Amino acid sequence: xxxxxxxxxxxxxxxxxxxxxxxxxxxxxxxxxxxxxxxxxxxxxxxxxxxxxxxxxxxxxxxxxxxxxxxxxxxxxxxxxxxxxxxxxxxxxxxxxxxxxxxxxxxxxxxxxxxxxxxxxxxxxxxxxxxxxxxxxxxxxxxxxxxxxxxxxxxxxxxxxxxxxxxxxxxxxxxxxxxxxxxxxxxxxxxxxxxxxxxxxxxxxxxxxxxxxxxxxxxxxxxxxxxxxxxxxxxxxxxxxxxxxxxxxxxxxxxxxxxxxxxxxxxxxxxxxxxxxxxxxxxxxxxxxxxxxxxxxxxxxxxxxxxxxxxxxxxxxxxxxxxxxxxxxxxxxxxxxxxxxxxxxxxxxxxxxxxxxxxxxxxxxxxxxxxxxxxxxxxxxxxxxxxxxxxxxxxxxxxxxxxxxxxxxxxxxxxxxxxxxxxxxxxxxxxxxxxxxxxxxxxxxxxxxxxxxxxxxxxxxxxxxxxxxxxxxxxxxxxxx
Amino acid sequence: xxxxxxxxxxxxxxxxxxxxxxxxxxxxxxxxxxxxxxxxxxxxxxxxxxxxxxxxxxxxxxxxxxxxxxxxxxxxxxxxxxxxxxxxxxxxxxxxxxxxxxxxxxxxxxxxxxxxxxxxxxxxxxxxxxxxxxxxxxxxxxxxxxxxxxxxxxxxxxxxxxxxxxxxxxxxxxxxxxxxxxxxxxxxxxxxxxxxxxxxxxxxxxxxxxxxxxxxxxxxxxxxxxxxxxxxxxxxxxxxxxxxxxxxxxxxxxxxxxxxxxxxxxxxxxxxxxxxxxxxxxxxxxxxxxxxxxxxxxxxxxxxxxxxxxxxxxxxxxxxxxxxxxxxxxxxxxx
Amino acid sequence: xxxxxxxxxxxxxxxxxxxxxxxxxxxxxxxxxxxxxxxxxxxxxxxxxxxxxxxxxxxxxxxxxxxxxxxxxxxxxxxxxxxxxxxxxxxxxxxxxxxxxxxxxxxxxxxxxxxxxxxxxxxxxxxxxxxxxxxxxxxxxxxxxxxxxxxxxxxxxxxxxxxxxxxxxxxxxxxxxxxxxxxxxxxxxxxxxxxxxxxxxxxxxxxxxxxxxxxxxxxxxxxxxxxxxxxxxxxxxxxxxxxxxxxxxxxxxxxxxxxxxxxxxxxxxxxxxxxxxxxx
Lengths: 481, 335, 280
Hints:
The complex is a heterotrimer of chains A (481), B (335) and C (280). Chain A is built from 16 helices and 19 strands. By secondary structure, chain A is an alpha/beta fold. In chain C, helix 1 packs antiparallel against helix 10 and helix 6 (142-152) crosses helix 8. Chain C is globular. Chain C has helices at residues 4-30, 38-52, 57-81, 86-108, 116-140, 142-152, 154-159, 164-191, 202-212, 217-240, 246-264. Chain C contains eleven helices and no strands. Chains in contact: A-B, A-C, B-C. Chains B and C meet through helix 5, helix 6, helix 11, helix 13 and helix 14 of B and helix 4, helix 9 and helix 11 of C.
């Protein structure tokens, strides 16, 4: 199975504390990765898994605690130190250069002359030793996601990594590819390597791991041996108690069909299919909660519903009046250098004609500021000067101030405090009560459940409706049955 | 200070130079009204157009060529359209604006359909326009005696009246002020102007939150800016030179960039900056005449102004690099 | 038939400064920086060569390179270090160089005649040699690899330990130096004297050549030859007895640039071209 107890742990994290401003991302976390084992690090988005591993790899400084990498204690170490200690990390967002070939990417960062034949031979040797094959002369932009991932692993192995940290490696893989990777992980461990598998997917974790640690809100809530843990135990640990919160939303009688989707597929800008053949109806008066983890394709679905992204296949019928609260506030929803009044005027800008009635817009803005509690120096203040919370209030105020047929909200309460969040929820419900179909996604499952009258779960591009029970939703988000 | 440094290189008496500069630009009434202000007219019109384009994120470096296109159109109308005064000059100026807009339109089309950087295409069009003018004034449009590379003088009806007998200042000054005010008004009071500002400030937000067709807005801004440059060319023909010849523009298209940048792209500040630079260039001519310092030193100063203002950064000059749609889409995918 | 040989010779001679400038610009652009100030580098190099070239060709060319480097350093300061807009800064630098060279030239007064044909052959050899050299450097050294990585994905380059700003600065200065050298060759191997604005848009044509050559050294070489031929037409038109107006022939290189850019567009430009580096 694994190495004899006498061998020191491949990675030991002791009472790690990490803060970002006022947010404590890691609150005294302990983690021990036994030598020669696979350790699954589980948790929801934002639980702190990636932060912990980036800190272990030397990418982030920590505020307290220490790491012990292959017997060496490190607190303020760099990536180079981690690499020398035999640690390699394969990142969630790959760090490869698309325009260069696989071999060139492998040796990037060295000095002197570059000899293609030697590089190719290197790739071949590593491929042979590890069982991961990549065409050395292929350009990275022509490689599939699986191949790119293999190359990233080869890069780590090229620097003699004994401990591999894989950050959400299966997020974008197909089922058979996932199986291949998991098998490879077990083979790697069998010849003496160690692996930390950072993932939110319960099934995979249990299929391949020796040990399991679960993080929730920066704390360890579960640490145990994999074969002694059941899926139910782990799901409960990840999501808290299994009492489904009663939906506080009054169930309004659903109105006419507002959105009709039949076999809708959506591709992202790179051409990868992100939503596969989704079919559903949405009616006025409903609040459809979308539950999904990062990378599932839900973002592309929401953008298609908002009318921002084109549909690659199938048919999607949208109503005329759509309000959209985008996820990326600063890039897509407001223009930081313009005033509040001007930002309010952005709505429907493409169809405005003639003169701008700034006086009216200003009056409207002042009224919005009052009703939505936007705190700013005045309507003429630049949006840049508002706090994140107030900026979001501005966006919501602008979008929700009129009657709409469809409201698409992507993480609308991100960065808002409790009272603002409650206000947003109130607005969403009011919009539904006025007859709009409301689609809302939040990375907080509880929030989705508290708002929704129906729940759609997106996993790996597949969209399906599930019952409103917390555990059922959670399991569907992770791909469990 | 730069001027002094350069002057000391050429071993010139600095005091004498500045004296000549001042007398040539602002120091005497004739210099001011007949020199500085007259130069400020095309600088204002073109500068306004460049400010408008830059505000939308379109980098129009081709004002020089657009000016020439407008000048050609105005000359053709002025030579061939008899009729009473007001109509002819209006026709000439309208033709000039249309020609300038069309000249910029080529660059706009190349950008929209093929993603060609408007910086390069507008500069290429500058050279094409200059050579076109050379061809015309030595060929089809040359004056009847076929001695000089220039056209005949345009009809009286096609000329802008002077404000008084003692000065070279002409009615174009009203056009210049009207252009700046109109641009300011459009930018701040109309939906189209707001669209333009929004696209220049954040094309992504304009597209997502405002559903604006950003490429169409940029193309329109380019064409409008070209029309203004063309109009300036027409004004020069109708108000100053009355005929077309080579080297009609002493680099107005580039000086206007400095004017627009110094005005921080605000149309109402453009006339002020234009007067400053008009004075600079006229004064430099005075320096050359009386103190022997080459007048082209003015463009050194203008370039330094651009760099200093740009180094300061911020405001409307923030994030002016606009990559055409295709390249931007690829970048978005990678983000 | 006898017109072909002089035409080819003229084409090669006119292509030389274009090729030199374009090879340098290619290096700069592979690193993500477009140098609109290249025209300024050329005119600065031309003037420097003119001012010192009477001593020796070597002195002239060295001065030309240094002049180009000076412009390049300014570009590095404003664009790589301060992160300002590449295109506006480049335009200002071109205006600056044109103004400074014009001022200095007029202040001097005299003209200097340098015999062109003697110095022509070596610089053309240098120009041609630059093509395989730049290809080798870009594809067979780690430094070249690093530059290509920066122009495509600077975050990945940084993750690999590459000093992004340093490499980018060196590439920009090298490109500017070659621009200066191209200007020097204009004076020392072609015109034999200086005239204001004699660069005549070659810097911008060189930028177009880089795009047409698909940012590859051999493509750049081929495109340079085509444009050299287009520019050389003006010299042979009268000799060929064509009934085309001289001024219209002068237009050809610029129209050709527009058409070529339209037909071949931006194709496979380095992804980061024109964009500032992401914050660390």
